[in-house]
Amino acid sequence: MAKIAIMGFGTVGSGVLEVCRRNAAAIARRAGEPVEVKYILDVRDFSDSPDAALFVKDLDIILADPEVKAVVETIGGTRFAYPYVRRCLESGRSVCTSNKEMVATYGAELLALAREHGAAFLFEASVGGGTPIITPMHQCLAANHISRIEGIVNGTTNFMLTKMKREGMSFDEALRLAQKLGYAETKDPGDDVDGRDACRKIAILASLACGHHVYPDNIPTRGIRELTSLDVKAAESLECVIKLIAWYREEANGGLSAGVEPMLVPDTNQLAGVDDVFNAILVKGDMLGDVVFYGKGAGKLPTASAVVADVIDALKEGAAVHDSLFWQPAEKLDHMLEDKKPCSWCVRVRGGAYGFSLPMEPVRSENGQTVCRVHNATRAQIDALAVEMKARGCELLLALKQMPA
Amino acid sequence: MAKIAIMGFGTVGSGVLEVCRRNAAAIARRAGEPVEVKYILDVRDFSDSPDAALFVKDLDIILADPEVKAVVETIGGTRFAYPYVRRCLESGRSVCTSNKEMVATYGAELLALAREHGAAFLFEASVGGGTPIITPMHQCLAANHISRIEGIVNGTTNFMLTKMKREGMSFDEALRLAQKLGYAETKDPGDDVDGRDACRKIAILASLACGHHVYPDNIPTRGIRELTSLDVKAAESLECVIKLIAWYREEANGGLSAGVEPMLVPDTNQLAGVDDVFNAILVKGDMLGDVVFYGKGAGKLPTASAVVADVIDALKEGAAVHDSLFWQPAEKLDHMLEDKKPCSWCVRVRGGAYGFSLPMEPVRSENGQTVCRVHNATRAQIDALAVEMKARGCELLLALKQMPA
């Protein structure tokens, strides 16, 4: 019998308890022994719960119990989660987490700490919710060098973009609906709509691909707040759809770039058909070519089932998993991982589109604004165009890259 | 240093050697030690090869060398592969294979043999080529009960169907092109076009999902030979595309069914956009919901890279992997796993569509044949309709199920 503890009894944490109980037999077979939740750490009062006896408020009780082999961290954030996870790993307990902020911020350090103490630090659920991505990347693609990742990794914004396209909603209407359905935070939806959540996820995948820590702070991140229905309709007339894409690329010369930004995705691209709260992540291996992993990016039971799969791996494999699931510490860069590659763009402008240094082809106009195509330009050229337009009393309101088909 | 042997130096076998050399450093890091190919078993003459020194013609040489920890089987078929793999496993060597026919036929027996001798028997490359599916299913979805699988698992037929749809080719034209490009066998393309290859792959996935051996012989299998351009065009006017679907389903009452057959896939379904030689497999977990794995289903280096990832797992995990990668032996059924569920159909008929026991709505006609829709009918009812039509001098030429959107 393997005993585990859950830290943080919110949505995912309570899901972990439910999954462990509902699929106990299958989990026992695969772990090689039954898995039982012995403690739940939460500061809140659960004395009315049928599981009241499991709750503790002090991490030391868990750490003092030699029966506890692995700990699930589903507190979220870093303030409590980070020191608690450190203490668990230092005590030789494996930790399984869905906490992308913690992994994106302290991943290299916690991986090294786990290795040092003979424990596993696993985080499949931190990207893609329940959709397998971390394990396939480091295990199934172990014989590949990964040079490119492109994904729709935030379900909330993908739901909103789907509503803006299909039902002609504005950004505000789509956000209100997402909040009503519980997909977006009511108080501050910024983590989702400003791209920070997607940025943390691509930082984790980029770190795994390149082998050293990539900090979210170094990844240029743009959200979807500025998108208008004119952008959506212009994309449609170009046989594209707008998606919030998190991407990572290693150039032939070894240089890295990464970003989170709304992009025009051609209808023929695999990512174009990924709608609603679904996620999809494309990974390019040098031997394998492109593979795509698709599924729901969030939700209580899907995410919890990924955490429980990690618990099984942690119990079976221990620190050996870190031969492949590992990246080195690295300093934060003092510059951003800017995209220097030329590509096609859609720019939304006001006040005129002719006679500037970059040729613009008008696509669609509305209320004095025009969406135009610009071919084969870098981000720096687009930034220069914005300055040039301003000097002539015009305005470049938004610039979106187009992905290849 | 871990030494391995390759049995069968064809396309995939030579790819394994190439992958091991090209990505040696990454493989060494992930395996925890360098991996070196010490022997290649092949009956043919490779004395001109730069690797001539590695070739042997006698399995006993490999088995007598205690340095060899794992053996790759890429001979194909069962005549030689099966007894050789048995002998390797009996000697305690782990075996990694891309051989779907052998796994579909002898999987349960070889898994038990591996376990008995403390070895691993791994076959990620047997389904989906290099696209991860077996490992995600038994490891990442370990906390799930899998009740449904639907996939495009044969790249050759998917390429042909894509050509029939996009370029209006006939079956014969598409087959000739597939043969010319090396996707289909020139001599006997039956394994692909008659669905046997897809049948073996779904038998493997079904066995893994339900926990006991499912024999290809018990899976009703229909190929794509009878499809005409009228079927393709009728599907298009119903906003569907025809795909060869391999599927498995566990009903609420625990009954199993499975099949391989061309089906109408609505354009909105994730599988509809999977074109050319690509594969995609949808797996439904009770906790996770639907996930889809997408990638190239074949090819030398993709397939070889999956075999090499298995070699790394075999060296690291050994027989422990079979706590989750396992199914029990079972007798061959004396009946087929027929689909008893009612669904929508497209039937192609000659000689009249009115006045029969099942109402038919004509969709499209050509050269005296008409494609009609039939709603909410079972396979048994369609079979009865065929008999009824024949008795009245008409003919039911082809019946295709429609997948849900």
Structural description of this entry:
The structure is a homodimer of 405-residue chains. By secondary structure, chain A is of the alpha/beta class. Chain A has three domains: 2-130 and 300-323, 3-Layer(aba) Sandwich (Rossmann fold); 136-291, Dihydrodipicolinate Reductase, domain 2 (2-Layer Sandwich); 343-402, no CATH class. Chain A is 35% helix and 25% strand. The first copy, chain A, contains 13 helices and 15 strands. In chain A, the strands form two sheets. In chain A, strands 11-10-7-8-9-15-12-14-13 form a nine-stranded mixed β-sheet, sandwiched between helices. Chain A has a six-stranded parallel β-sheet with strand order 3-2-1-4-5-6, with helices on both faces. In chain A, a hairpin with a 3-residue loop joins strand 10 (278-285) and strand 11 (289-296). In chain A, helix 5 runs parallel beside helix 10 (196-210). The longest helix of chain A has 18 residues, at 300-317. Chain A is elongated, with a radius of gyration of 23 Å. Chains A and B meet through helix 1, helix 2, helix 6, strand 11 and helix 12 of A and helix 1, helix 2, helix 6, strand 11 and helix 12 of B.
List the main descriptive attributes of the protein structure presented here.
25% strand; Rossmann fold; methionine biosynthesis (chains A, B); nine-stranded mixed beta sheet; 13 helices; 15 strands; six-stranded parallel beta sheet; alpha/beta; Dihydrodipicolinate Reductase, domain 2; homodimer; 405 residues; elongated
